[in-house]
Amino acid sequence: MIRESALRAAVDLIARQGFAATSMSQVAEAAGISPSGLAHHFPSKKALLGAVLEHRDAIDSDPSPAPGTVPWCAFDHLVEVAGLNMQRRQIVQLYTTMIGEAVSPDHPAHAWMLGHYDAVHTNLAAGVRADQANGHIRTDAPAEQIAREVVAIMDGLQVQWLLDESVDMKAILHMRVEQLKTVWGTTPRG
Amino acid sequence: MIRESALRAAVDLIARQGFAATSMSQVAEAAGISPSGLAHHFPSKKALLGAVLEHRDAIDSDPSPAPGTVPWCAFDHLVEVAGLNMQRRQIVQLYTTMIGEAVSPDHPAHAWMLGHYDAVHTNLAAGVRADQANGHIRTDAPAEQIAREVVAIMDGLQVQWLLDESVDMKAILHMRVEQLKTVWGTTPRG
DNA sequence: GTCTATATCTCGATAGAC
DNA sequence: GTCTATCGAGATATAGAC
After folding, report:
1. A60-184, which class in CATH?
2. Which alpha helices (DSSP H) does chain A contain, by range?
3. Contact B104, A97 (CB under 8 A)
4. Which residues in chain B are closer than 8 Å to A114, comparing Cβ atoms?
5. Which whole-number Å values give the CA distances from B151 to B31, B56, B168, in the listed order?
6. So what's the architecture of B2-55 in CATH?
7. Which of A92, A127, B46, B163 sits in a 20 to 30 Å window from B104, CA-based?
């Protein structure tokens, strides 16, 4: 499918250069078609960006376990995602580049960014509160702050890993999650 | 000075839109001069970016205390910087936007970004090792990982704070640093 | 030191042939 | 569904008047 090869080209170029610095002509050339041929599938640059973000969300589809069953499961899951990310540089680079650009309220991906953070942050904070209700986490644990801190580690490590792939994102995040368990958990741990 | 008002305009625009999305004409208009007048002071867009990064580094000038005197002093200092940053949105926004763009090896600010991370990371890791030598930090503490994690928190929180200024960067970072002291410190703590 | 003027290029988007 | 052709706008950069 031509549409899909164009989408692949767009993901690659936007990941490496950012959205603002990537032109429709570049994408068309990388996909092996003319700019007008590309315009038939994606009538505007924003439409192309929308498809790219959709593609990213599909890959990152977070089948996060239901909270409340296993303590800290949302955090353990994030550690696994960090490990997966170390084998898919393109997606990490696309994400990091996108976040940097979309901080601006006028950016076409700003709404996407707000939704992304709301979803991730809400998921982690809810996980803490569910475990607090089940007695697995101390009730004086600051759910909001813990969620924000772990999301920050996840995002910040991706930047460092893009600059130096020897950075072990999974190990560092794992270390932090295990410390959270000992500091705020109620279950005795060795 | 016209050069300085142009620089202020460039900082403002690049912070809000990013470097790639900002044009020389925009900067000239915001500074109240013609594009050619701007070109006299900054002969190229890269030259303008260089001055902007220099300006940022000057403000962020990290008079980090000498390591080895007070335990965890480099980390306590970072907590203070997080507090200061909550009162200078423009600099935080410029930094975050710049990081996102400069991940690409071809970006004109890529070398600046590598130097920045090397400096910050080296500073924190050296602080840990100095405290280990003085007996304030357990010798089995992973200095590299701790440094990377704290830098990640600092960077990641700035993104979240830009989206929602009610996020207390200083409090969250402070919480983490205090936990590091209890987990890895040798000095007894209440 | 700041301007006008211009050169050269590329952008995103559209119209219409096939 | 892909192409050629073209639009108008805006980019960086340079040359030269004042």
Report:
1. mainly alpha
2. 2-17, 24-31, 35-41, 45-59, 73-85, 89-102, 110-133, 143-163, 169-184
3. yes
4. 163
5. 35, 18, 16
6. Orthogonal Bundle (1.10)
7. B163
Mean pLDDT of chain B, nearest integer:
95
For D11, which residue's CA is nearest its C1'?
B23
Average pLDDT over residues B88-92: 98
Q: From chain A, pick out residues whose CB is under 8 angstroms from the CB of B168.
A: 145
> Which of B46, B148, B162, B170 to substitute to test the interface with A, most A CBs within 10 Å?
B148
Pick the CATH number of B61-184 from 1.10.357, 2.30.29, 1.10.150, 1.10.287: 1.10.357
For chain A, domain boundaries: 2-55, 60-184
Nucleotide closest to A39 measured between CA and C1': C13
